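User: two proteins, same treatment. go.

Assistant:
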Amino acid sequence: MTSQFERLRRMIWEGLGNLTRYCGGKHRQRQRGAANGSRRSFLRTAPGLLGLGCAVAPTFVGAQETPPEEKRTSSQRWEELSASDLVKALEQTSLVYVPIGTLEFHGAHLPLGTDAIHSYELCLAAAKRTGGVVLPATHWSPHGHEGWAGSLLVREETFRALLTDVFTLLCEQGVKFIVACTGHYPAKQEPAIRKIADEVVQRFPETRFLVLGPWCHPTDPSADHGGKKETALMLSLRPALVHMERLSGPEAMRGISASAVDGTAQFGKDYFSAEVDNFVNKVNEARQPT
């Protein structure tokens, strides 16, 4: 440790010596009427003289920075927008997507947040075509594979309180249309969300709700659990999170569909595209004046 410290100390002193000699030379150049570019030359060279690695060209932020009034954001993710950008986005299209999922076991090969990922990606894809803003995905749910590794399921009253607060806050901010999209088992979770939305809309009749899950493929809307469809969807949407090599052995199919081995990225891409098309059509239909 001592020898390393001594080497570092010597490098610093040698670098400072080089820097001093360099600065003195440059000072004499300026006295002789050296070109104005010497200062930038010094900035490019100084790191190397100090032993800090290769010389780099400096970045002059002030000279090229985009004026604030010209800055724009194309994000439709609520958490990435500034307050003023959010207001502008909602003035243009008063529509907010609320993606909902769960944290539950999806086999040894899929992420625990598969349902929320599916819902979130669908909402983002839809918002690009309809306008509006997408909230961060909600992973908390009382429904799922309780007791399995990785499953974190909250109480029904917690879920109800959470969504009631989220829906209420959106209504209080003047949002006119809310799409609640759950990626979890639609036959169970959609009715629960719809009941919460119905209670909120009684206090905010000027806001309309649509509760619709991503399982809305026009010809094959049935959901599976860790099977071919969810595996294919994750291979298409988040391939780095899928571990197909784990689908072997006697325990590999516990809690999921054996069709998981048939999932492909291409099938997932095509299936998701058809879901988005139908989902957008349903959102646009629901937003028509009543």
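Protein 2:
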Amino acid sequence: MVTARAATPAATRSVRKRSNQTETFVLISLTMLPVRVSCLCLWMLTSTVVAAPTTGELLAREDFNKDLSQWVVEQTPNGTTRLKDGHLEIDDGAGPNDKGGCTVWFRQKFSGPILIEYEATMIQQGGANDRLSDLNCFWMAIDPKHPDDLFAESAKRAGSFANYDPLRLYYVGYGANGNTTTRFRRYPGDGSRPLDPGKDELLDAKYMNVPNRPVKIQIIADGERVQFLRDGELIFDFTDMTPFREGWFGFRTVRNHMKVDKFRVYRLRTSP
């Protein structure tokens, strides 16, 4: 978290780097610019490289070299999801009567504290759906109408994004909207989809997708601490005072061509 506020004659920036077991605070003095600042609070002004989380038991593993029996695919009619060359490949297109959309849920329900990680590659090789957009995901997802069975209305959702609004979950839309925005949302389960109030959305090119190169995504759900990392850089660091402590995980995309590999879920070790 990065905080900046008016001061005289200098401003002070507080940078917090937090690993699973320790927190370090660094204060840096900044010369005030000749502008008037009343009050400003910025969350994650730049990406922060953080120490690797301390993991314990391996709870789930998928290398996509057998079948899709551990997964539930919800996709609009003009897309395909399959195993290819040891990867999960999602090739999602928009048909004449839909906007496209695909969610691939892992069947197992998880409770925190956990670390979810995987590698994803956005394919851009001239294909019909090679759009370079929407490396998205849901986690700690629950259907309030069916809290013990996320898949009770799987066929009804069918991959259409608006049909996920009633769920209770965390969501990151990474390089969404044609690779122009990156956002964190907390769906409370009432149909609303509020953005992270501390960050709103990221627009800088460094937070967007790159073609044809694997990136490592890591998600931490540790009680009030909710984090999203890309290639070891902390992109979102959200404190949830009423956290979602259990639920399902799903890859999410729309009108895009991508592949996923090396899916893992670990129990996080907590401080003694």
